[in-house]
Amino acid sequence: MSSHFDRQWHFPRYSRRIFLMAGGFLAVEFLGRKTGWWGEQEVAIAKDNPLQNSQVRIYLKGNYRYIVANGLPNHQTGTFPNPGNPNSIKAQSYQLRVPANPQIAAKIRRFQFGRFGVAVNGVLFDPGAAEFWRGDRNWQYEALSGKLNLGIDANNAHVQPTGAYHYHGLPTGLIAKLGSSKKMLLIGYAGDGFPVYAPYGYSEPRNSRSPIRQIRSSYRLKQGKRDSGPGGQYDGTFVQDYEYVAGAGDLDECNGRFGVTPEYPKGIYHYYITPEFPFISRAFRGTPDETFVPKEGSRVPMPGQNSPSRPTQPGSGQPPPGFPPGQYPPPRRPPGDRLPSFPR
Fold it and tell me: Do the beta carbons of residue 28 and residue 16 sit within 8 Å?
């Protein structure tokens, strides 16, 4: 399922390199007769941002879309450390990949915490908090409930102990950089390869000429009181305070739907980040690559993942599939300003 977005940047005699500049606009540079530095179709390169020295490269090669980034945002952030978050933002060494032609899986894959996807600026979508009521994993605190001070900034983001800045909800600073908040805007990719959009889409999913409007989640607060755990009224303090109600909004239980988009005019399943729960999806409609959700026993590193366990050292472990030996950051290398090498 080749997309219009992927095809539109392929030229027999020219290749385009796209720069995501500090001002948030896209500038295009023609590179002559080349198709990319190593023959792959190059989709996007985000250059340094004077605020955070943000660096990210996104490109296609074979059956995958690769994302190589230092995880620094290309927009202003809140102050870190702060009273609710004692961590400072630091560069990471992300080497990720997602299927270039994603497919719907037989079953939905749910998760409590970890990476859902990555924004076009190289910052992770990581919705789940690692805080639980009295350690009971049946009652997970909702990071954006306002009931727990996690030091979330105006971009619905904060910082892991590893220094990884990550989004729990709408990346407002990124959306502002991209130039519009009320159009259908591609802001990232999920770990299963499906695109992720800001909360505006076509009012008729299969009709690109239909009006643009805000897309609504189908999750609602449960009625009544909790019958176990912390007790009290369902008020949004916990993830478990919500339930999916089919038809209550526009989206399915993965906060997505099938339809046309500007980048995929023939239609594709796609996710939305919404201003209401679940904000960022807590489930995959497709099969996530192991660079987002490692298989059991895998040593694929997960720097910046929400986890109550000891944080993974960025760059440790074995390279993800598709990244040849020697191309992956060596263990314990301090994150720097330069991106790790692409796979050849």
Answer: yes
